[in-house]
ABC-type sugar transport system, ATPase component (Saccharomonospora marina XMU15), 265 residues
Amino acid sequence: MTGQPDTPLIEVRGIGKSYGSVIALRDVSTVVNAGEVTCVLGDNGAGKSTLIKILAGVHRHDSGEFLVEGRPVSFASPRDALELGIATVYQDLAVVPLLSVWRNFFLGAEPRKSIGPLKFLDRREGRETTKRALADMGIDLRDVEQPVGTLSGGERQCVAIARAVHFGAKVLILDEPTAALGVKQAGVVLRYVAQARDRGLGVVLITHNPHHAYPVGDRFLLLNRGAPLGSYEKSEIDLAELTSQMAGGAEIEALEHELRSVNAK
């Protein structure tokens, strides 16, 4: 990616997507800047997955503008997004559990060495490069030959993040990376999200958990039923208000009032 220093890595303006008569996303706007984390929050059905798929090149938007460093784009495939440095780590990670950590790290891009006309898998280069890339992110694995399926969920997420950084991602989209993790493992993943941000990447963190988003987030986009519920800089909202909006503060207050009325009878 190239462009002016102040130009967002990604900007969407009034973006929308429909599937037949079903409106999955409408009038959504946000930006992703280098060295910042943009958090996209919402419950199931809020439109988070649709937004990810548009940014990742899986689907094309129907309306609005999608800009990458100021240039309008409409991706035909995920490869188009990758070529512009946009990498997506999905919740299921798409790893091969029985393959080693380093083989998963290079999956589809394995290093080769030549002996005459023959090419062979360069295992030593693969292991050393993987160890070095993980160490650069502060990830210390005992053995990169161990099957990736033996790692914890948090460790697998961290390997996927390090892989994206190593292969030149400028924007890292993380799909619910802490959803299936306990408190300690979620903290480990969030630490590496912050490291990716501090290395100058623009990060899009998709989550339904404001307690995970707020510590690392610089910007918060709240979605509800495919539409924006609010968009805030960190200085404009605190954790309590973010949590209240996510939980549907007005609806909760109305329910509490209703329950108090019932109990008083």
